[in-house]
Design goal:
With about 425 residues, this protein is α/β, with parallel strands linked by helices. The chain has 21 helices and 13 strands. The radius of gyration is 40 Å and the shape is elongated. The N and C termini lie far apart (about 95 Å). Pfam families: AAA_lid_14 (PF25601), HTH_8 (PF02954), Sigma54_activat (PF00158).
């Protein structure tokens, strides 16, 4: 049995990808048997090489090898092409004709694009796979054939079965052994190697110097998605070999030959909804509530620390950032405190000359009892906050309702209704 490297050299297969090597190994292993093989993979990956390997290593290697593209034969004549027909069986049948299965008797038949077969033809093919029997079109005589069937498809067979475009029993007959060839984008290390091979072949064919890629062009070559796989890469190499005067190809030159070039990188999606951080009335209310909750929790913390320590100056020193957050700036008027004196003035709202008497309890729940009382005294109105937001938006936009509504993230009609409600 020949090894993988020898098979590659014999059939001109380029690449060292582990998935490619595994596919060739499976082909070598199943070749001596007569079991059916299904080769899967995207269009252009080189599926036609696997049936040739299987046939050449089998005991049928001296028989015929017939390759049939099932997708290229019209539905009305495919039965005649595969199984033959009798004279006069249909219009134009002026003589008896042998089909591919009869001609390939004792050899191998390769059914490329087998997923494109009509359902009626699939029934006939299933019978050939089961017992080697077929009937010519227009005949009633059953004939026998001894062929090895290797099929290939780029169709997702399970989806085709679910859509009832392919028979499930035929799929399992064909795929006794399934060999999958990876797409070129999964064989990154082989891309430049294949390009160099194609470039050398075309240089010899057209009698011209071999083209070479610079470093940036090689990087671009490897990043490209290659949806057409090896076939597309070969075509690009041929185009550049024929059309380019310069034998050294830059990244810009290569990019001009790559259709719809897009790097194989994740796309960045912009999720921003509008120019402001809220887009409707509900979000305005949520924002106000979250801000209130945050400020209230900060006040709880500061008040509790004052009650526990009783040291007003030390608390001010330790909580400058927190105090400045609560009292130090007004987001609507864009004013801030620039000095410690300003902070002291702001703190006049919390005059605590001596710590209040705390209940003689040790539980944490009792300590927070007074902080919860503060929450009841804080009665900020959502309507007042909404009114302030609307006033500020109108002021910033010189009374223009359309611009103010856009800033608030509400419709102009809704803003007009709010203005009438608050009598602005």
């Amino acid at each position: 049995m020949e090894n993988v490297q020898a098979i590659k050299q014999r059939f001109g297969i380029i690449g060292n990808d582990i998935k490619l090597n595994r596919a060739i190994e499976k082909a070598i292993q199943v070749a001596p048997t007569d079991i059916s093989v299904l080769v899967t993979g995207e269009s252009g990956v080189g599926k036609e090489a696997i049936p040739k390997i299987i046939h050449s290593l089998s005991h049928r290697k001296h028989g015929k090898f017939i390759a049939v593209n099932c997708g290229a034969i019209p539905e009305g004549t495919i039965d005649s092409e595969l199984f033959g027909h009798e004279k006069g069986s249909f219009t134009g049948a002026t003589q008896t004709r042998s089909g591919y299965f009869e001609e390939a008797n004792g050899g191998t038949i390769f059914l490329d694009e087998v997923g494109e077969l009509p359902l009626t033809t699939q029934v006939r093919l299933l019978r050939v796979l089961e017992n080697g029997e077929f009937i010519k079109v227009g005949s009633s005589k059953v004939q026998k054939t001894d062929v090895r069937i290797v099929a290939a498809t780029n169709v997702n067979m399970f989806e085709a079965i679910e859509k009832e475009k392919f028979r499930e029993d035929l799929y399992y007959r064909l795929s006794t052994v399934e060999i999958h060839l990876p797409p070129l984008r999964e064989r990154r290390d082989d891309i430049h190697l294949l390009f160099r091979k194609f470039a050398a072949d075309f240089a010899q064919k057209y009698k011209m110097p071999t083209i070479r890629l610079d470093d940036e062009a090689v990087v671009l070559l490897n990043k490209y998605r290659w949806s057409g796989n090896v076939r597309q890469l070969r075509n690009i190499a041929e185009q550049i070999s024929v059309l380019e005067q310069e034998r050294s190809v830059s990244a810009d030159t290569l990019r001009s030959y790559l259709p719809d070039y897009k790097p194989n990188l994740p796309a960045v999606i912009n999720h921003s909804k509008s120019d402001t951080d809220f887009s409707n009335e509900r979000e305005i209310l949520y924002k106000v509530l979250f801000d209130m909750k945050s400020d209230l929790n900060d006040l709880k913390k500061l008040t509790l620390e004052l009650m526990e320590t009783g040291d007003n100056e030390q608390v001010q020193e330790d909580n400058k950032t927190l105090i400045n957050k609560i009292y130090g700036s007004d987001s609507e008027s864009e004013e801030s405190y620039d000095s410690a004196e300003d902070i002291d003035e702001a703190l006049e709202v919390l005059p605590l000359n001596s710590p209040p008497a705390l209940p003689n309890h040790n539980s944490l729940e009792d300590k927070y009892h007074f902080a919860e009382d503060i929450e009841e005294e804080e009665t900020l109105s959502l309507q007042e906050k909404e009114l302030e937001l609307i006033k500020k938006a109108l002021e910033r936009n010189n009374g223009k309702r359309k611009a103010a509504a856009k800033e608030l993230g509400i419709s102009e009609r809704t803003l007009y209704r709010k203005i009438k409600q608050y009598d602005l």
